[in-house]
Specification:
The complex is a heterodimer.
Chain A lengths: L5 E12 L2 E12 L3 E6 L5 H8 L7 E6 L9 H8 L2 E4 L11 H11 L5 H14 L16 H12 L6 E5 L7 H18 L2 E5 L3 H7 L2 E6 L2 E6 L1 H5 L4 H8 L1 H14 L1
Parallel strand pairs in A: 3-7, 3-8, 5-6, 6-7
Antiparallel strand pairs in A: 1-2, 1-4, 8-9
Helix pairs in contact in A: 3-4, 3-5, 4-5, 6-7, 7-10, 9-10
Chain B lengths: L10 E5 L2 E8 L4 H9 L7 E3 L3 E4 L1 H21 L6 H14 L13 H36 L8 H11 L4 H24 L7 H39 L2 H7 L4 H39 L4 H10 L2 H28 L4 H32 L3
Parallel strand pairs in B: 2-3, 2-4
Antiparallel strand pairs in B: 1-2
Helix pairs in contact in B: 1-2, 2-3, 4-9, 4-11, 5-9, 6-7, 6-9, 7-9, 7-11, 7-12, 9-11, 11-12
The chains are: A alpha/beta, B mainly alpha.
Chain lengths: ~260, ~375
């Protein structure tokens, strides 16, 4: 794969909450068309990094460039244009609770792509099916859905505008193994067909082994290592060793090898 | 033939029995593509994808709707130029878009459904009143259960709620009643001047505030300020499953959440009523001194002739109002279901209900006290 073009570049990022620094001089590059898995222990600032990149959090210091632009310095209109190229799946779904699922997905289509409501809802139904939700779920409100269904609906909304970059915050948490596998497959299909770039925060080792081109490990307030999985797994670091060579890591590796052979 | 057409709006060309797709088949060109797809001839045998620029799920959906899942699959099979990634995308979208969608029938409005709605409203109202009485009883039972155990009194929570609902409300209650006191004094002066009885303005202000306005204004302010806060607090906890978490840990939400709030309001409202009465009379005094030429000494002298009983009948209502406001606020919070919108709906409902109940109870009390000649 050609991986020259950098779509996200993070340089010397510092994020502080009061006196507590979550990131201290963090550097990271994400290339076009790759699926980057971001792992790290609880509290290492995975979600904070995601929020800094999509511009929801102004970094305490350092620079975040997406498509070569610094979101924090752009005018409102220019920023909105860049943000349209993002699809974000938040950890808890963050579906709009006063809209039905279909309306949730159709909203960006109506607002940004200027589609008519019937067209938008028709297209939204396709996205819903792509994300693996039954048709009847579309007319429900988010509060009536189960946790896994909220995740899928939220994925469908993130995909609504066919974004260039997809940010996923623990997408497979709360999905059953079958649903998680289907999710991995969908992600690969979309990435290949649309040259989607995916920034994937996850704890799911199976997802890491199946879909990720590269894995970035957040530790000690920095990106400890960002490389292919086999390289990362051999990194000389206590946490990394524990993570990839612990019982769960081994099981996921064996599963991957079985499928591979 | 293999020219790249990326960046150009999507189009369909017609060549030797084959449809040739060119340009970008993407979301920005959705309406144009939909129109063009509607006009293609039926007698083509294959689709030529070699000139295709960009393709996204919107473009793929349009193709899937136009040809149907089976036909699209067959057409893809016969297109060797199609890359495997696009083939996968078209197949995935084809399967998703080919799924029959069942229409949800829109509810029809008829006279019968209107009557049914009215009936439902009435029954809901009666049920709501039942639930309120139920909840009031439950609160009292919890109170009785907790009272013998001083360790379960939750004094920190109680004091914190007294500060939020009582102390923090003092400035607004004082200001509002001061202004209303002045207004009542002006009104009295204007009307009583016709009978040459301007001096009775002082009695008017004193009676009005001691018996009615002090407690009523304080209660209405608290209904707006505190009932809404209680509903929003409890409601957000409900949405966040915090109430369920309490119950799952064997903790009683009535004891942890409702009792401190009810007790705090029971203490706060009588105190605020006193502040309201005093502040209203100060408002009256300012008008009396500056515009009616009644000296402050004379003003106080007249106030002293008003019997304490009037003040007591006024402030006796305060605990009742406090109890009603607090339980309506908490109960509406417990009724919240799942969404931010529901929190808003129930907050509105709690303010409307508590103000309504306060005024209704005050009217009943006024009639009762009058009949009793208190």
């Amino acid at each position: 794969m050609v991986r020259e073009e950098v779509v996200i570049s993070v340089r010397n990022l510092v994020n502080r909450f009061g006196t507590h620094a979550v990131h201290e001089g963090l550097n990271l590059d994400v290339f076009r068309g790759e699926i980057l898995g971001v792992v790290g222990g609880s509290g290492t600032g995975k979600s904070v990094l995601l929020r800094s990149i999509v511009g929801l959090r102004r970094p305490s210091a350092g620079e975040v460039r997406v498509f070569g632009e610094d979101l924090q310095t752009l005018s409102h209109e220019r920023r909105s244009l860049v943000e349209r190229r993002f699809g974000v799946l938040f950890q808890n779904g963050a579906l709009f609770s006063s809209l039905t699922v279909i309306e949730n997905i159709a909203l960006p289509l109506i607002e940004h792509a200027r589609m008519k409501r019937p067209d938008a809802e028709k297209l939204a139904a396709v996205k819903l099916a792509l994300a693996g939700l039954p048709d009847v779920a579309g007319h429900k409100y988010p509060s009536e859905l189960s946790g896994g269904m909220v995740k899928r609906a939220s994925l469908a909304r993130a995909l609504a505008l066919d974004p260039d970059i997809l940010f996923l915050d623990e997408p497979t948490a709360g999905l059953d193994p079958i649903g998680a596998a289907a999710f991995d497959h969908l992600l690969l299909t979309l990435r290949d067909a649309l040259t989607l770039t995916v920034f994937l925060v996850t704890h799911d080792l199976d997802t890491l082994y199946t879909v990720c081109d590269r894995v970035a490990v957040l530790s000690q307030k920095k990106v400890l290592v960002a490389d292919r999985l086999d390289v990362v797994a051999e990194t000389d670091d206590a946490w990394v060793r524990e993570y990839f060579h612990g019982p769960r890591g081994r099981a996921a590796l064996q599963a991957k090898q079985r499928i591979g052979s | 033939m293999m020219q790249k057409t990326k960046g150009m709006a999507g189009d369909i060309r017609w060549e030797r029995g084959a449809l040739q797709l060119v340009g970008d088949w993407t979301l920005p060109h959705y309406r144009l593509l939909e129109r063009k797809l509607g006009k293609i001839p039926a007698n083509f045998t294959r689709i030529d994808f070699s000139g295709l620029g960009a393709l996204d799920t919107a473009g793929a959906s349009l193709l899937a709707w136009r040809f149907g899942e089976e036909r699209l699959k067959a057409l893809i099979e016969e297109a060797p130029e199609l890359s495997s990634e696009r083939r996968a995308l078209l197949l995935a979208v084809g399967a998703a878009a080919g799924r029959p969608t069942e229409a949800v029938p829109a509810p029809r409005r008829t006279v019968a459904s209107l009557l049914a709605d009215i009936g439902k409203c009435v029954i809901d109202g009666i049920k709501g009143l039942g639930a309120l009485l139920n909840f009031a009883g439950l609160t009292l039972v919890s109170l009785v259960r907790v009272l013998p155990h001083p360790k379960r009194w939750r004094l920190v929570s109680l004091v914190s709620h007294i500060q939020q609902t009582g102390l923090n409300a003092v400035p607004i209650v004082a200001l509002l009643t001061f202004l209303v006191g002045a207004v009542v004094a002006f009104l009295g002066a204007t009307v009583l001047a016709i009978f040459g009885a301007t001096i009775y303005t002082v009695d008017l202000v004193a009676y009005a505030f001691e018996r009615e306005f002090g407690v009523l204004l304080a209660a209405i302010l608290l209904a707006g300020r505190t009932a809404s806060a209680f509903t929003a607090q409890v409601g957000s906890m409900k949405v966040n499953e915090e109430i369920d978490a309490l119950q799952a840990q064997g903790l009683d939400p009535m004891e942890m959440l409702v009792l401190p709030r009810v007790l705090a309001l029971l203490i706060s409202l009588p105190l605020l009523t006193f502040v309201a009465v005093a502040s209203g009379m100060v408002g009256g005094a300012v008008v009396a001194v500056f515009s009616l030429d009644i000296s402050i000494a004379r003003y106080l002298e007249i106030i002293q002739t008003v019997h304490i009983q009037h003040f007591l009948t006024g402030i006796a209502k305060a605990p009742v109002f406090a109890f009603v406001i607090a339980i309506i606020g908490c109960l509406e919070g417990f009724k919240v279901e799942g969404s931010a919108r529901s929190v808003g709906d129930h907050t509105t409902s709690s303010v409307v209900q508590s103000i309504f109940m306060v005024i209704l109870l005050d009217a009943i009390a006024a009639m009762f006290f009058m009949e009793m000649k208190w």
